[in-house]
Amino acid sequence: MQAMIWDEIDSQLSGLAEQGLLRRRKTLDAPCGVDAVVGGEGLLSFSSNDYLGLSAEPALAEAACAAARRWGVGSGSSHVVSGHMTPHEQLEQELAAFSGGERALYFCTGYMANLGVVPTLVGRGDAIFADRLNHASLIDAALLSRADHHRYPHNDISALERLLAASGARRKMILTDAVFSMDGDLAHLPQLFELAERFDAWLVIDDAHGFGVLGPNGRGSLAHFGLPMSPRVVYIGTLGKAAGVSGAFVASSDKVVEWLLQRSRTYIFTTASSPIIAATMSASLKLIEQGEQRRLHLQQLIERLRTRLSGTRWRLLPSPTAIQPLVIGGNEDALRVAAALAEQGIWVPAIRPPTVPKGTARLRISLSAAHSLEHIDRLAAALEGMQ
Questions:
Q1: pLDDT reported for residue 20
Q2: CB count, 10 Å around CB of 377?
Q3: Is residue 329 within a helix (H) or strand (E), and if so which, with residue range?
Q4: What are 2-27's pLDDT values in tens digits?
Q5: Phi, psi (5° rounding) for residue 208?
Q6: Structural domains in the chain?
Q7: Of 40, 135, 308, 357, whose CB count within 10 A is highest?
Q8: Which residues form the catalytic set?
Q9: Whether pTM exceeds 0.85
Q10: Is the pLDDT of residue 175 over 60?
């Protein structure tokens, strides 16, 4: 029996390799940034979600060192036992004020935040209405909740309205990414908010790729659309992307956050993150709030890239964000283009199924405020040379 299991794993791994779907890690020999070093080779990187260029910001490194000297390295316990330290408490208060929520709760990762929120708010007999292109963590959270899981076509508000109108569930939840990680487009949050109000539903928003980048002072996608932090809104922000640090937070009404603190399993039953991370994130929040020049520069980079790549034979998806997907088509073709770029010292990851639909393998070009216009021109010239 055991031999059969090993044979099956070997066969499946071979199948992934034959389909061009085997994932291979690269080990970086330099801090996260646009100048990567892999295997001793320097690469211009368009591969990370460090949208504001804060991951290696010296001020954050200094904040981390100061926190380590003051608070040590580990928290020693879960938040609800003895691991909730002053840096955690201070960060939660700052995140609530920054995002407009009455209160915020800090989680170790964005995945854990999503898995913690959804099953705590809905369960058997309830219904979740989720965008078909939601992140894997939201899909898993919906399945874990045991609520009825209805997936509507991407950004199809009419289809969502029909599903909501036909539902007799006692509690309803609209579940969506704010910025979709593989297409780079935005959810229609104003229309989703209106439907949540009309059908008395939760509106749970995962703003992993919008927090820090969109909205006044980088306050995120809700602020970008001028929407209120209504009691029915549960806002999730990731802190390992534009914020350059680690973890995630949930902001909502005081009552909702208290309920999550009491019942969210991924919050209660895990050791609290290092106080170093929380203190460093507090320093990052100040840089985000004061980072308008970074965001303006990022917008210039987006516009430059879209202009330069508009004439290529590949399809650039209509994204207004730092995520710029260039659809190549087949898996092997996408890998071939990525490899050709790497030979020229440029790192752009090839994204393949099941992360994206079959036949839409792509280069996911991630832009950072640390990039220059010259970096964009170098990438564009390399791609243009493959036409």
A1: 81
A2: 13
A3: strand 323-329
A4: 777 888 998 998 998 888 888 888 89
A5: -55, -40
A6: 26-52+292-384 (3.90.1150.10), 58-289 (3.40.640.10)
A7: 135
A8: 181, 209, 241
A9: yes
A10: yes
